[in-house]
Design goal:
By secondary structure, the chain is of the alpha/beta class. The protein has eleven helices and ten strands. The protein has helices at about 40-50, 75-95, 105-115, 135-145, 155-165, 180, 205, 210-225, 245-250, 270, 275-294, and strands spanning about 5-10, 15-20, 30, 55-60, 100-105, 125-130, 185, 190-195, 230-235, 255-260. Strand 9, helix 9 and strand 10 form a beta-alpha-beta unit.
């Protein structure tokens, strides 16, 4: 039996679409990175649901099937406020605070939601290859890939797969492209384009170095406010997160656990999904055991 499609409301009554897997008492919300969709979590969400968790893999604003924001409000606090809104809806459904697993953009949303917007709203937080301070050259590389062909699009799914292969030359190109097709939208002109709002790239936080530095400082403050259980998972070959960034984060959040995944880059779940899912599963099992002891 496949996942159930559900809809939440964001802070501006914007539609946020999620897939729900499994059932149980402790809910888990999974948030993808910038330019991705909820389907980046398909395999991991099924595994985590198998532990006895209701898992919600959600398209964030401007991504996948969730609403595009006409005002162009795509700052990190906007994503965090959406998460707070969804957290409260999930809490009402299950009468339990959710665990949030956030990759990159999703991790920023999680840090800000718990450390600034709504302290105490989450049960635990898993950060996937993201810390408050990141390598801006790595960010530029990712934004460059996202901006390439953003207007022209692709003639077919195979052409999009070739673009990804050039961007991620060390990853084996999949033979079955059905998963990739979920990240593309067929437009009226017959061209395929990525399943996210191009206005997302125009947010000032991504293009103004001074503002980007302020954002990182605000993230450090939010991280310092985290008192809940935290797991940081890094891809050992990450383009964004260095060990210096990890050490700085550990100084701010000394109780955080840390896992470094070998042969994985920034797209940790895509590079080493089994190892990634195992790390999250171990963290969730420990949470359950600690709750039972308490």
């Amino acid at each position: 039996m496949g996942p159930k499609r559900v809809e939440f409301q964001g802070v501006e009554a914007n539609s946020l679409i999620a897939d729900r897997y499994g059932a149980g008492e402790q809910p888990v919300i999974m948030l993808h990175g910038g330019g991705q969709t909820r389907h980046s979590w398909d395999a991991a969400a099924q595994r985590i649901a198998g532990l006895g968790h209701p898992v919600y893999s959600m398209d964030q604003r401007g991504h996948g099937e969730s609403s595009w924001i006409a005002s162009g409000k795509y700052s990190f606090p906007d994503f965090a406020k959406d998460l707070v809104a969804v957290t409260r809806q999930v809490h009402a459904l299950h009468r339990a605070k959710p665990v949030v697993v956030g990759a990159s953009l999703g991790g920023f949303a999680g840090m800000l939601a718990e450390g600034q917007e709504n302290p105490g709203g989450l049960a635990a937080l898993v950060l996937v290859d993201i810390t408050p301070r990141i390598d801006m050259d790595g960010v530029a590389k990712i934004l460059g890939f996202m901006g390439d062909r953003v207007e022209d699009g692709f003639e077919n799914v195979e052409e999009a797969a070739e673009a990804i292969a050039r961007y991620l030359p060390n990853r084996v190109k999949p033979r079955d492209l059905s998963g990739l097709s979920k990240n593309l939208r067929l437009h009226d002109d017959g061209r395929y384009r990525w399943h996210w709002d191009p206005a997302f790239l125009k947010a000032k936080q991504k293009n103004d170095p001074r503002l980007a530095a302020e954002v990182q400082e605000n993230m450090l403050v939010a991280a310092g406010n985290l008192s809940l259980p935290v797991l940081l998972i890094r891809g050992q070959n990450s383009e964004l997160v260095s060990m210096e960034h990890v050490k700085e984060f550990q100084q701010r959040v000394p109780h955080a656990k840390f896992t470094d995944i070998r042969d994985a880059g920034h797209m940790v779940a895509g590079d080493k999904n089994d190892v990634f899912a195992s790390a999250v599963e171990e963290f969730l099992v420990d949470l359950r055991l600690n709750a039972e002891v308490a």
